[in-house]
Automatic annotation (TrEMBL):
Keywords: ATP-binding, Ligase, Nucleotide-binding, Protein biosynthesis. Gene3D superfamilies: Amidase signature (AS) domain. Its EC number is 6.3.5.7. The active site is at 52 (charge relay system), 127 (charge relay system), 151 (acyl-ester intermediate). Residues 1-448 form the Amidase domain. InterPro entries: Amidase (IPR000120), Amidase_CS (IPR020556), Amidase_dom (IPR023631), AS_sf (IPR036928), GatA (IPR004412). It is an enzyme of class 6 (ligase). This is Glutamyl-tRNA(Gln) amidotransferase subunit A. The gene is gatA_1. Belongs to the amidase family. GatA subfamily. PANTHER family: GLUTAMYL-TRNA(GLN) AMIDOTRANSFERASE SUBUNIT A, TRANSAMIDASE.
Length: 455
């Protein structure tokens, strides 16, 4: 695999690969296996993986896709990283992403864009673009990503792999470089729902080092992904499942090829026994302004730690402390990160707080309530992940237009609900299209089960 990774360097999936570390971990896995130590705790023994460069790691640099952290080496591993290592996984390296996970194309990486293996002139999506490319190009069987407003689901959809964002609080955020703390969640990306279940099993669970980590029992995701529910049969594994289609997810603005592919996948789910019902998420459009107030607000606060004093980039020349801060931050951050810091600082400032931030918080609650109303009539919600297939690299220069493309992933993020993207087929230009399924809180198994049935 290391040779395969090297051969596909031009895809820009990896920011760091360390053969020595990988081979040492693989050697340890071999030893465990030889001594018969493989047990339930070692469910991923010897499985090669790689992490989005948002997770801090002791054995590799941790850059968050930013020049700000170009030389940063963490003294500790993120909880998700150490849990996957404890399960026996072998880490090959760190994966490319948009700077501080801000973006949906990987073009905001301070290092280089990542390329979609289905057409290397196109984006793989983002911000977990490297994570998606590594799986889609078969460089590793599984990777980690993070999803604040769609960054696991959207690149999974655009590259034809499976990715799940769990319920907020399911996976520890300890050691995940913070973007918007009330939204950030880790999630696995792999070829199938079942592979995702294996990773999620190892990644999940309460962690006292993350104050928002939930004390929620972790089910047997793998068993629940594959076991038939009462009343279901091998021919109709989804019998009894009600899938809600929000009418706001099927309106104009979705490319015909995407819509057609999603509808075909829904017909397939129906054949598998599911019933389709129409539901409504009336504030879907509002999720864009709400998210693009809340996420930058939290980002502006989280990113204030990069001051050039304790760690991160420090400017070479400055006259006084104020200038040192200014120069270090001007040099270290890229344009999208600066844009978000400015938006965030503005909406939080005295005099504007009530008009923007407070208003956004109230709407966020209403968006979450809309989901609960919809879940009265259905078990899962389905729709597209993104309105179009992957666009050409460099073809979008308007940041607001780019924000609008997040419309179908933001609602679940704001509500803290779990969502999965499973490959549904191909749309415009023969590019992959994912089907999004959204579940109620802690219902990851239901998403994985339906995704598995479809695959
Ligand atoms: N595209 C969204 C943004 O730019 C989502 C990013 C993410 O989920 N990390 O904020």
């Amino acid at each position: 695999l290391l040779a395969r990774v090297a051969a596909h360097e031009s895809l820009g999936a990896f920011l760091a690969v360390d053969e020595e570390v990988a081979l040492a971990q693989a050697g340890a896995a071999d030893l465990w296996r030889a001594r018969g130590i493989q047990g339930a705790g070692h469910r991923l023994l010897g499985v090669p993986i790689a992490h989005k460069d948002i997770f801090v790691t002791r054995d590799f640099p941790s850059t968050a896709g930013s020049k700000m952290l170009a030389d940063y080496h963490s003294p500790f591993d993120a909880t998700v990283v150490s849990r996957l290592a404890a399960a026996g996984a072998v880490t090959l390296g760190k994966l490319n992403c948009d700077e501080f996970a801000m973006g949906g194309s990987n073009e905001n990486s301070a290092y280089r864009p990542a390329r979609n293996p289905w057409d290397v002139t196109r984006i793989p999506g983002g911000s977990s673009g490297g994570s998606a490319v590594a799986v889609a190009a078969r460089l590793v069987p599984a990777t980690t990503g993070t999803d604040t407003g769609g960054s696991v689901r959207q690149p999974a959809s655009l590259t034809g792999v499976t990715g799940i964002k769990p319920t907020y609080g399911r996976c520890s955020r300890y050691g995940m470089i913070a973007f918007a703390s009330s939204l950030d969640q880790a999630g696995p990306m792999a070829r199938s729902a079942l592979d995702c279940a294996h990773l999620l099993q190892a990644m999940s669970g309460f962690d006292p080092r993350d104050a928002t980590s939930a004390e929620q029992p972790v089910p047997d995701f793998v068993a629940e992904t594959t076991t038939l529910r009462p009343g279901a049969s091998a021919e109709r594994p989804l019998a009894g499942l009600r899938i809600g289609l929000p009418k706001e997810f099927f309106g104009e603005g979705v490319a015909p090829g995407v819509l057609g592919t999603v509808r075909a996948a829904l017909a397939e789910l129906e054949k598998l026994g599911a019933t389709l019902v129409e539901v409504s998420l009336p504030r879907t459009e509002l999720s864009i302004p709400v998210y693009y107030i809340i996420a930058p607000a939290e980002a502006s606060s989280n990113l204030s730690r990069y001051d050039g004093v304790r760690y991160g980039h420090r400017a070479k020349s400055y006259k006084d402390l104020g200038e040192m801060y200014r120069a270090s931050r001007s040099e270290g951050f890229g344009p999208e990160v600066k844009r978000r810091i400015m938006i965030g600082t503005y909406v939080l400032s005295h005099g504007y707080y009530d008009a923007y931030y407070l208003q956004a918080q109230k709407l966020r609650r209403m968006i979450a309530d809309d989901f609960q109303a919809a879940f009265k009539d259905c078990d899962l919600i389905a729709g597209p992940v993104a309105p179009t297939v992957a666009r050409p690299i460099g073809s979008q220069t308007d940041p607001v237009a780019e924000y609008l493309a997040d419309i179908f992933t933001l609602p679940a993020s704001l509500a803290g609900l779990p969502g999965i993207s499973v490959p549904a087929g191909f749309g415009e230009h023969g590019m992959p299209v994912g089907l999004q399924l959204i579940g109620n809180y802690w219902q990851e198994s239901a998403l994985l089960h339906a995704g598995h049935a479809l695959q």
